[in-house]
Every structure is written in structure tokens, then in C-alpha cells.
Design a protein that fits this description.
Blueprint (H helix, E strand, L loop, with lengths): L3 E5 L5 E4 L3 E5 L17 E9 L4 E7 L3 E8 L2 E5 L4 E4 L3 E6 L4 E7 L6 E8 L9 E6 L8 E5 L8 E2 L5 E8 L4 E3 L3 E15 L3 E4 L3 E7 L3 E15 L6
Parallel strand pairs: 13-14
Antiparallel strand pairs: 1-19, 2-3, 3-4, 4-11, 5-10, 6-9, 6-11, 7-8, 7-10, 9-12, 13-15, 15-20, 16-20, 17-18, 17-19, 17-20
Length: 239
């Protein structure tokens, strides 16, 4: 059982809405600042984004951040100043390391369908790294946790993240199926769509998250078809 558990409901997230974007923020982001909600463990951004057809984020810059994108529906086109290009779709893991500085754009690759994706940022354990890009096909996901990204020593993952204390896992569960989350000092369990019961915490559904501290690995059981994203973190910002 966790030493501390906090459920963060979807309805309590800040929302950015424009003519082409709806973005729901789990942490402080952009114009939405809450000094009591800037991060959890090493995770500083967990945005649920819906981008309209033939629209998207124009070229903008980042530095010293590991930016991971997980597409749920549709396709997202990436282009950056290091010459990397790619189209991200469901089942493809993608990471951009901003490092010493990089500019990129993210556009809906369809003229007719919206794209829905979760973007997550973690702080690297070194500053001023060379900017980098990686994507890798995961394919089928089912009733087991698949390690999407990791910097943990000895941990196999689809893509690498420049922080030895962080790993991202995912699963796609049918009703009644369950997985056991990793034991970790900091565990962020997020449901972009679906509904699960978190052992020792209760039920969460579309857009909800549970933040668990010093957990021995709770059981996560689906109540309906569910997509699941779990951050395992063994450190926090500031040590």
C-alpha cells in the first residue's frame, strides 16, 4: 500500500482552448500556473491534446527536457531543427530530447480527422545534452505493462529517456483484466480513456490520475476498455 495517495480528477485540470486545440493539463502549463501543482516526481507535463485537422503547433523551442508523445487516435507529424521528421501514430513511441536547444513543429497529419495524443515531459538528469530524436514501433498492446520509455539501468524499453530514475509503461486492458504496477517511490497512474480500480486508492476514469508515493506496486484492474500510462520514478525534482 502507498504511504501517500492523491487522486487528481479530470474535471479539476486546467484547460487551454483555441480554434484548433483543446489541451487539458495535469500540471501547471503555459498561462495556467499553480505553485502547488508544478510536478510530481520527475514528471512536469502531462497534457491531453486534441488538434483539429490540418492544424497544429507552429515551430517553437525547448531546452533541457525529455518530451514523449503517445498518440491515441489519428496521426501527428513532427519536424525539428536537427533535421528529424516523423509521423507518430497509435502504437509508435516517440521521444525528443531538447537538450542544449531545439525547435520543432507538431501538426495534425490529416486534413479530415482530429488527432488525440498525450504529451509528457520529464527533466533529464544532465543538462545541455545534444538534442536527439527517437521513435519505435511497439505494435500490439494488451493485458501486460509494456515499457514504452526508460532510462533505468538494465531496463529494456522501446525508446530511451535521459533519466536513469524514470520509466514509462503502458497497457491496453479489456474489462476485468489487470496489471500490477511497479514498486517505486513515485508512481503516476494516468487513464487517458477508460476506467480502472487502483488497489488502495479507488476508481479513476477518463482523464483522471493517481499520484502514489512509496508504493509497493498496486494492482490496476479495468472496469471497461482502458488505455493506461504509468510513470515509475525513483527520484523527484530537487533530490
Amino acid at each position: 500500500m502507498p504511504a501517500h495517495c492523491e487522486i487528481r480528477r479530470a474535471a479539476d485540470r486546467a484547460v487551454t482552448t483555441t480554434a484548433w486545440l483543446q489541451s487539458k493539463h495535469s500540471f501547471s502549463f503555459g498561462d495556467h500556473y499553480d505553485p502547488q501543482n508544478t510536478h510530481f516526481g520527475l514528471l512536469v507535463v502531462n497534457n491531453d491534446d486534441w488538434v483539429a485537422p490540418a492544424s497544429g503547433f507552429d515551430t517553437h523551442s525547448h531546452r533541457d527536457m525529455e518530451i514523449l508523445t503517445w498518440v491515441l487516435d489519428g496521426e501527428l507529424a513532427h519536424q525539428d531543427s536537427a533535421g528529424n521528421r516523423g509521423v507518430i501514430y497509435p502504437g509508435l513511441a516517440q521521444r525528443m530530447s531538447a537538450g542544449s536547444g531545439i525547435s520543432h513543429s507538431e501538426k495534425n497529419d490529416s486534413a479530415t480527422r482530429p488527432v488525440h495524443f498525450v504529451q509528457m515531459w520529464v527533466v533529464p538528469d544532465q543538462t545541455a545534452l545534444s538534442p536527439g530524436y527517437q521513435q519505435h514501433e511497439i505494435g500490439h498492446m494488451g493485458a501486460e505493462l509494456v515499457t514504452i520509455a526508460s532510462g533505468r539501468p538494465g531496463r529494456d524499453a522501446a525508446i530511451f529517456v535521459h533519466n536513469r530514475d524514470a520509466a514509462l509503461h503502458g497497457a491496453r486492458l479489456r474489462p476485468g483484466e489487470g496489471v500490477t504496477a511497479p514498486a517505486a517511490p513515485f508512481l503516476h497512474v494516468y487513464v487517458p480513456r477508460g476506467r480502472i480500480t487502483v488497489e488502495g486508492a479507488g476508481e479513476i476514469s477518463d482523464g483522471d490520475a493517481v499520484r502514489l508515493t512509496d508504493t509497493d506496486g498496486p494492482r490496476l484492474t479495468a472496469r471497461e476498455p482502458t488505455d493506461l500510462l504509468v510513470w515509475e520514478m525513483h527520484a523527484k525534482l530537487g533530490g
